């Protein structure tokens, strides 16, 4: 279920804001050819893509600015004025419900001196006022108050200086995505076959999903791609990195069962860089006992089909390119916000089926915290791995040694049961596709690099 949210009139857009005689020198936005840094065919990767500041800045221009990026969940907005502040790449944005109950998103930066006009994480308001000089904007992004307005020339028109609006928002089963691209591919087409895998988490309930427990945020030392890639492609690390967690979740004094340690499954490989991996077993179950006991698996088979219930319904991992990931087993959805080449912020929500009773919702929320919350027994292992990779990658020799992404090379195929091309569960296939898409975007001029007519 995809819906388009049309932006309203009155707010500015990146391509239509007054620039006067400003002309940015090309040297400030010089691009690097990255074709030699990602060899998808051989499965090799140059570590410079994790450490180089020039490449990071190019990512913001060519990967984040044109892509569909996850912003928020529709359950966070119930009344006009409800808002949530987040990021698109490193650009701060406000997502809000306007007076006509349309979801809108604006650059969270005053048009006067550039300070944020909303410093709260979330809440409700009638307008957004900059605390620097008092310029104020309504829920439609229009500039409605300018202290000492008489001091400006007659050419100054408030209609020209509204908040810069994100030009396109669309939702998919309650997930709100936005893009700065003025002429984007529709979200549903961008997701492609990935929606089949997403629906295994998002479409249990005709009434959809809701958020429980707010948004958890923490900072990790590591490049954002390390996290996004792992959630797209890497079941391989589970038995080693999470051995202690698997022991903890096993019956006291027993090792995990052999069929748990050596899972069989598939990995979805999407040409747009998305990816999903999941064990396949007819007895796949939700891990939280209360959630498992409440779940009507027969009804889910009727709604979603055997292939999804046996596969991506429960255990598994997935990434929607570039930086939105999710874990069905505990209802975790998250964004890897880039904060320079060496740092990321993790923002994590727990979502549940709307029909879940309160005690089942609470069980899922607590299970999410214990496993993949900021101090979760699995989350801690992952953060340690990413920071370790990042810490050593700045060495001259280390940075010159390529990384191996060859597991499952050439194994991608149509398996006849799952949409699109899939590989084995233990494979780097979706990782290669992720970096192939990254390479493509990094070497493709975005809309903002087209020549503008002189204004």
TrEMBL record:
Which branch of life, at top level? Bacteria
Q: Where is the Rieske domain?
A: 68-166
Any GO MF annotation of the entry: dioxygenase activity
Name of this chain's protein: Aromatic ring-hydroxylating dioxygenase subunit alpha
Native organism: Actinomadura vinacea
Q: Which Pfam families match?
A: Rieske, Ring_hydroxyl_A
TM regions (residue ranges): none
Annotated family: Belongs to the bacterial ring-hydroxylating dioxygenase alpha subunit family.
The UniProt keywords, alphabetically, are: 2Fe-2S, Aromatic hydrocarbons catabolism, Dioxygenase, Iron, Iron-sulfur, Metal-binding, NAD, Oxidoreductase
Instruction: Locate the region Disordered.
Output: 1-20
Q: Please give the PANTHER family that the UniProt record associates with this protein.
A: 3-PHENYLPROPIONATE_CINNAMIC ACID DIOXYGENASE SUBUNIT ALPHA, CHOLINE MONOOXYGENASE, CHLOROPLASTIC
Gene3D superfamilies noted in UniProt? Naphthalene 1,2-dioxygenase Alpha Subunit, Chain A, domain 1 (3.90.380.10), Rieske [2Fe-2S] iron-sulphur domain (2.102.10.10)
